[in-house]
Amino acid sequence: MEEKLVKAEIVKEVESEKRADGVEQQKAEVVEQVPAPGTLSFAFLVHEQTKATLRTSRTLIILRGLPGSGKSLLARAIADSYQGLCTVCCADDHGVKPESPEASAEGYKAFDDAVVACCSVGTSAQVIVVDDTNHTHDQLARLGEVAEQHRLVAMFLEPRTEWSRDLPQLAKKTQRGLQEAQIQAMKVPLEETSLPLFFGWFLLPSIQDKVRCTSLDFLKTLDTLEAFKKHLPDFTVEAEKEVDLEQYFQANALHCTTKFCDYGKAEGAKEYADKPFHQLSRWLVSYNPAAVKELYGSVFELSLSALFVTPRTVGARVSLSEDQLTLWPADAEKEVVSVVPAATTLPAGSRAHITLGCAEGVEQLQTGIDLLEILALQQAGQEGELVEEMELGSLSYYGKGRWLLSLREPISAQACFSSLYGPKKADAKKDGDKKKKQKCTIL
Ligand code: 2AM
């Protein structure tokens, strides 16, 4: 609809230019501005519920793509759609030349400062658009870090123009006067980072706070229960010592992973990203049936139905709706069958969870395994020992330090379907060491 309006204006302009001199040249310039069909079909531009939510939440839209691929046109379309609520930070305005990064060090520094200033609390912008090539892993990881530090949900987007990776066309379209070889040099790292570390639903900041408070309340209460004290040796070898659960678990940003891709190295990553739709969503534009691509950037309402604690992890169980299962990888449960043999017999979506904390030295991946183990026991008819009816729901014990609180009222959590680029492995290790030295807290 919006796309059609833009088109109509452009056509009028072209017709009026026909009466003037130099028709051909001006016509070409005007046509350049027409968004090609389908190029603006992003969820956050067409999906009404998503648009309404993003107007009241803070989002960092990170554009990426080769020079001439249509980033600036997309940035303009976003600014039009979120008028008065959007700031576009454009690398060009800071003297950045992506084809010569060494010569652009100062420009990149100034640009980074500008992006950070835009993301800082106190600015009115709800939607901040970063208009740069962002073709390297370092750039993506840095912007993901800025988003996390400033409590923004990040999205990473490439223009959907047909020529977005077509070197001869890009060389013609870009205003930078670049050779194909220069664009090719950027295309290599861009393609290497086509797939993220993982896809998932990222909780909006306000709901993150609510989930954190609820899980903290739960841990505080659990810590004081006689039944928990009785099973303390599950959590510590020094049976005499008390365990402060709030200190025991390490924190992380709240999300529900759908597919761990490891930048394309994980099995099935590419197939997942291209996974076709099985059911038509109400607002789906039918020409492109890839679910991940179509739903990327849209807001969902997740239902958190239980909280669980084990000596290794604390998490929230996510009960996925049929629509949400469209984004669930077919092999998510099977992937961990070597550790939880019953995983193959559990329904799709059983592993869906949010990691709320991990004990020191435990990988986040463990949370889903811990949840599947509890569900496998339930499936085998071991309902767990009902320990207490708490205000939040029923608390059951499943042995070996495994506790499950079935929430009386599931928590409804708004979450954006997006992706994340983490620091490179060497940098991640450094960050991990830094975190270990800090006081260990949950959330
Ligand atoms: P989580 O979903 O249980 O929190 C980055 O490591 C993210 O991907 C984490 O959130 C992690 O766990 C999730 N993840 C899922 N499968 C993974 C795997 N095979 N290896 C590492 N992390 C994985």
TrEMBL record:
Q: Where is the AAA+ ATPase domain?
A: 57-238
UniProt membrane topology term = Lipid-anchor
Region of interest (Disordered), ranges: 423-443
Q: SUPFAM superfamilies attached here?
A: LigT-like, P-loop containing nucleoside triphosphate hydrolases
Q: What is the lineage of its organism?
A: Eukaryota, Metazoa, Chordata, Craniata, Vertebrata
Name the InterPro entries for this protein: AAA+_ATPase, CNPase, CNPase_cat, Cyclic_Pdiesterase, P-loop_NTPase
SMART domains per the UniProt record, alphabetical:
AAA
Name under which the protein is recorded: 2',3'-cyclic-nucleotide 3'-phosphodiesterase
Q: Where in the cell is it found?
A: Melanosome; Membrane
Q: Which family, according to UniProt?
A: Belongs to the 2H phosphoesterase superfamily. CNPase family.
